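anyone else get weird line breaks when pasting these?? whatever heres mine. first is seq + tokens for prot A
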Amino acid sequence: MARIEAGDFKAFTGANLYLDRPAVRFTLRVDPRVRRADRIREAATTAFPSLADSGPDLPELFVRALVEVLKMDINLSVGRFVLEPGGEESVIAVESLDERITVDCAETVADWFNALEEARPFDFAAEFTRLQQKFDKTLLGGPTLYSLYEGALKRGIPVQYLKAENQFQWGYGLKQIRGRSTTVSTDGIKDTEFTMFKDMVADFLQDRGFPTPKGRTFYREEEVVAEAARLGWPVVVKPVAGHKGHGVTTNIRSEAEVRKAFRVALESIEEGGFDGVIVQQQIEGTDHRLLAVKGRFVAALQRVPAYVDGDGKRTIGELIKIENDTPARLDNARSPLCKIKVDDDLLDFLDKQGLALNSVPGNGQRVTLRRVANISAGGVSINVTGKIHPANIRLVEDIASNFNVTCMGIDVLARDIARPWTEGDFGIIEINAGPGVFMHLAPALGGSVDVPAAIWAAHFPAPRGERIPIVAGHNLTRKFCAALIERARKARPGLFAGSLTKEGVSFDGRVLCNHPRHDENVRILLRHPRLGFAVLSHPGAALKEFGMVHQGADIVIMDHPDAAEATLQRDLLEDGHLIVVEKGKVTIKRKGAASRSVAYAGAAGREAALLKVLEPLLKVLVAKYD
């Protein structure tokens, strides 16, 4: 039976011989007896019309179909690939966000093509949906983290995943930041922790004269009931340590509702994490998320609780299903809205309005489904960045200036965000040190605000602000690396430097470790938070097995390279220097400049010539990254 088979998969966790970023390489075997190529092409182009202009060969059609699948119908940034035809067996490498997803996608496309060849049923749409749902559960399936990842790629900021730490690293050495969301390693840990405790935050805001509703923290139900009666209706009850609106009950107007709200707050708290319940005055107005990056206002979003509009025919339950089926609520890394989940809170809120899932609202009647407006609870987002009053912008920046955090989300209730907060009907309900950003990139209504761009500009304001000087080669000894680092230190005294050679990872001349995986050694070197200069030796065998991992180098040294080692030249930075050792001379090559050479004799002379050529370059290089 004629078959199309994808196999011999190999994942690269960073830049490699095929692509300058994480990739999966595999072989594609196409049996020459395949006879239904036209049927395969027709089905593939029906599913993905962009494939209509692909070449006549099945391997090209296969890899382009695979790329479309990897984009998950939400245009993920995974379009790069390499195809090396080889008769019946081709080598393919595709950009990859997740190894397991990429392999599954390749095998699924192969199964699809084989089913078409064999004229047997294959539900490609169902398989594609399965793959999309599988991707949603991966690390980059989350909208905020993916938005940060993609934003970094667009700006040429190197990013790598640190598996042992379960977090990402952007940049290298002393320029790096690490994290899994908008909370990163440079944020003050105490400030970040502080924002999680709503009671202390409320006290902080009140002490400094910022507008926030009056309220107190209690631990017993009777105390909560008494405080609610003292404050006067309506009130809000919420857990001290909560997030995404979990356990929050608003518009409480009776003792019975207070008691129920207390139980809801308790149920939302993880076991052993009870820090009390806050009772606050209710402020009338709509919910807004105001975002600051490095103390500067960036975006404002109005959040409306999930709702459906009646048509006089369908029940509320049916209207929710119709709304959840809209593209805006796919609930993936690119959709602006989350699903509306039918749970006890939604049912209770409907009941409070005298409604149920089987109620049929009138034509044009809007039914609000939840008390809270959080996007994660199905809320609708509206960009109001251009409407916010200057006084409210100053308020955001005044609050954010009190905290050493990169991103701060300030949640407020306001009748009209275009009016200054000093006129009343405005209250801060909480602040967040790790806010989501995708809601600003893709609001349900209004234009996009590129918050990731603002975040990366704040972290790395200068060109190449995320990089350190990197020298790469394939035949570099520990002795030579030490001599090179010594000369770099002459240009910048006190420079903390490291190298990777066959002996392992060294810092300041001392070998720290030698991991069996070359890619992990590269990460160990570039992960050091004090590293200001790096020299890496990549033997051909290591490049084939693991890749070079890091993205780009300022200086690349070629000393009679094999085919794999010669690939290092590909990632030389635009203004970098290529050093070529051949025929008894060391030659400096730079784009747009004349070559310069230094002759040598013997192994000792070669090293001396290299150092002579490199010394003046190092002075310029270390100064460039100051």
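and prot B, same format (seq, then tokens)
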Amino acid sequence: MAKINVLDSSVFNLISAGEVVERPASVVKELVENSIDAGATKISVEIVDGGISSIVIVDNGCGIDKENMRLAFLPHATSKLAKAEDLDNIATLGFRGEALASVSAVAQVTMTSKTVDDEIGNFIKLSAGKVVEEGKRAIAQSTSITVENLFFNTPVRKKFLKKPKQEEANVTAIMIQLALANPDIKFKYTVDNKLVFQTNGGLEEAVYAVYNNEIANGLLPFDVTYDNYRVYGYTGNASIAKHNRNYQTVIINGRIISNQTISTAVSQAYGNRLMTRTFPVFVINIVMPFDDVDVNVHPTKTDVRFADNHKVFSSVYKAIITTLTSQEQNLILGSNSSAEKKEQDVIQINSDINSTKPQEKIDGIDLLFADKEEKKDTKYQDLIEKQKKVVEELKYSKDLPKAQPKVRDSMSATHSNSVGNIPKPDITTSSSLLELVDEQLESEFKVIGQVFNTYLIVECQGLVYFIDQHACHERIIYDKLLDEVNSKNVSVQYMLVPFILDCNNTQYEYLCAIQQNLKDLGFDIEEFGGLSFKVNSVPHLLNDINLAVFFDELFTERQSALGLKNADLIRDRLAQKACKSAIKAGAQLDNKQIRALIDSMKNGIPLQCPHGRPAVLSYTRRDFDKLFKRII
């Protein structure tokens, strides 16, 4: 049998340091969290060469006296815990007593501190975990820690560090999260003697300090409470989505974490609002009872475990989906806004596209000639009076045609699933009535045409809109399908041969739990003996669905799907269906078909397709003047 060795402190401290101190960013995180626990309201962080050469952290916290200064650098020495029961209600960020011991084991560290009771400050210097100097030093009440030459005594560890600029980026990411997680603390962050950012208190101010204006202006605030959980912060709209997760911050009771349950909840809430391989920007702060979360499950305290995973998921999902839904936007052409107003005022927004009443339109001669009392405050009154005179003249004319001239079908165009079915105006004769109607419609918006057989161009009230015909039509179809699902008005397609689904124990229990949800969607599913299910029908909307793939994806998402609405379970499939049914890019439309398509959008023109791509772009006269250098 091999001999058992009891490791020396110089060895096990290095091993412990390997778990806690991965790179300069780890050092910054641990030491700043100690400053926060010390009650600091101001924290300054300075790094040189990405933190490899030097890290200096100064705070105005309570400080540490001479008697405890040496103890602070011993392994498992902490002021935050005294007994095992304290682990059940951890309210501080640092509690294991590993940070200072681990950092000093792999660097040269100097701590200077003064408490309110000290007449003069004290300092201590350590190298590779051993005290090399200590004494008195004049200092105001504060604590300063300098970490130099990180990993100087572990060359193998140092070899695996990135270049200084990359390590600097990692430190900056941590500092941004710390500033967002502790908005009431004033942070000052300096890199190579250059100020990167400085916060002065408040979450909104912190957001603007650490992010550029484009990102900060694209964030949507939320603050909701579910039972005894408070969920608040900011989540970004689709226009500021990023290609990585560096702009995502999750805070639990003031602690920065990375948690799969929360990430999945946010991802499910965004759904198809974002383009593929892009990630939302968000700052999510969750406050919950301390005994509902276990923070002692990860060596670097970057993850936690929840007592009720489903409750956390549901709270985050509801907060995000409610915020995103409340700002869903549709563009309505022909509003009464003037061109002199700001662009955002020109665009009339519907907050809830599912509950908005269709925009009132002229829908045939009968409506045009409705009694004035029934059409109060309408902008068509002058037009109606002129049209009455025209019809009176036509009524007694010897040349009156057998068929009355039809008002343009585009005024009452209905939604179509293919470009070939878009109705063309049926004009049997020409008259002043028709010209007047056309003139009034042109005053609302003017169809310029189509470019590349893909993009529609419309002018309205001082703005020119470029509309992606496929993305726009796709969203219209998607919303219609979604309405059917939400209203539980889904028609069913029965299968000639039932689909048999074989499950394992976990999948079987999960399907039993959501069986009613699936039935509400049109899936007639029943147990078929053992661990199998028989699927007798599918929603007619998804009659070409691949059931094997559908259930496989459903099982993959089973951790979160119990908290989702019925529509969310098949949202991706509805988007695929809409994509197949919509007008394709490359389909040629004439101006009359374009007008018919736009008029069919009773709730306005969608600003995004179901996959998150923009469907409409707008430009002002000023934008064009700038392009052509009329304005410098």
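btw re prot B: Residues 80-91, 336-380, 393-443 have pLDDT under 50 and may be disordered. The chain has 22 helices and 24 strands.
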